[in-house]
Automatic annotation (TrEMBL):
Species of origin: Sedimentitalea arenosa
InterPro entries: GroES-like_sf, NAD(P)-bd_dom_sf
Alphabetized GO MF terms: metal ion binding; oxidoreductase activity
The keyword Heme appears for this protein: no
Protein name: Zinc-binding alcohol dehydrogenase
Keyword list, A-Z: Metal-binding, Oxidoreductase, Zinc
PANTHER family associated with the record: D-GULOSIDE 3-DEHYDROGENASE, NAD-DEPENDENT ALCOHOL DEHYDROGENASE
Transmembrane intervals: none
Family: Belongs to the zinc-containing alcohol dehydrogenase family.
Cofactor: Zn(2+)
Length: 315
């Protein structure tokens, strides 16, 4: 059995093609979300050869670079069985109807609208990054890059008691969003330089240089960006060593070592969904497109720097 799905079929080319439905519980898609950073790398064919296996998403079809069915922010309704009608989240590409094992489904809490639940994978990443950072109550925390994951990480960090959280971005229009997330805002040339924890999301060498410059002596800088193929210069020639900075990578595919014995991926995803019970987070949905119109609009959505989480509606 097949159902229409979005496929990246060549550099910057997308089509609706049949995709395998899979095995397990039948799901009718309600919404999916475009995760701009990763999906843009896939769409442009910039997944490094060395990462073709590690970058495979759950329920992906095809192989990198092309053709490939890719995505991981799916919200749908169970269509058959005892749980029919229940709204669930799954890590699945953009596809109208699919089947997955019930172990891959996370129930969407009643307090979270289905349209907002597309942020679950981004919130899960934000939670993992915050854990990897070791940030705590009272810390001065800077987030460089106010995309959707950066904003969600700032939102979580601002809930730490006494934490002073600042979002840094080159786009001054992100200032109001930062305020809504409970954070201060600054342009890069106004960034404070005495931060206990710095979290970097911009996927640019300039952003990473800003993150390093913001860190106080013996502070932690977490690199959460995914750069794809190519080289990224790193500013290690300045005060990086004299300040004894700690540079930490973060990737959502693994739980932090300090939590791995107690937390499962399912527990983390469930917590991420709970954390979406806040109406302010609707402002991170920057647009909506019908699934039937997606191939024609996909490239423009991915290339628009104003895009946060773009939602796909399945009519």
């Amino acid at each position: 059995m097949t159902s229409l799905a979005l496929w990246s079929v060549g550099p910057c080319e997308a089509e609706l093609r049949p995709g395998a439905q899979g095995q397990g519980v039948l799901i009718d898609m309600l919404f999916s979300g475009i995760s701009r950073g990763t999906e843009r790398l896939v769409f442009e064919g910039r997944v490094p050869d060395s990462e073709h296996t590690r970058m495979r998403g759950p329920n992906q079809e095809g192989d990198f670079p092309f053709p490939v069915k890719y995505g991981y922010c799916a919200v749908g309704r169970i269509a058959d069985g005892a749980q029919a009608g229940k709204v669930v989240f799954a890590l699945h590409p953009h596809q109208a109807r699919f089947r997955v094992p019930d172990t891959m489904l996370a129930p969407v809490p009643a307090s979270v609208p289905a349209g907002r639940a597309v942020l679950a994978a981004n919130m899960e990443t934000a939670l993992n990054v915050l854990w990897d950072s070791g940030a705590g109550a009272g810390d001065r925390i800077t987030v460089v890059g106010a995309g959707v994951v950066g904003l969600l990480t700032g939102y979580l960090a601002a809930r730490l008691p006494g934490a002073e959280v600042t979002l840094i971005d080159t786009n001054p229009d992100r200032a109001e969003l930062a305020r809504q997330m409970g954070c201060a805002f600054a342009l890069p040339d106004m960034a404070a330089t005495d931060q206990d924890v710095v979290l970097h999301f911009s996927a640019t060498s300039e952003g990473l240089a800003t993150a390093i410059d913001c860190a106080a002596c013996e502070a932690t800088v977490v690199e959460a960006s995914w750069y794809g193929a190519g080289e990224t210069p790193v500013a290690f020639g300045g005060a990086f060593h004299s300040r004894r900075l700690r540079l930490v990578s973060s990737q959502v595919g693994q739980l932090p070592a300090a939590r791995r014995s107690r937390w499962s991926h399912a527990r983390r995803l469930g917590k991420a969904l709970e954390l979406l019970s806040d109406d302010r987070l609707d402002d991170l949905i920057s647009g909506e497109t019908s699934f039937s119109d997606l191939p024609a609009r996909y490239g423009a959505i991915l290339s628009d720097p104003a895009t946060l989480c773009h939602r796909i509606r399945y009519d």
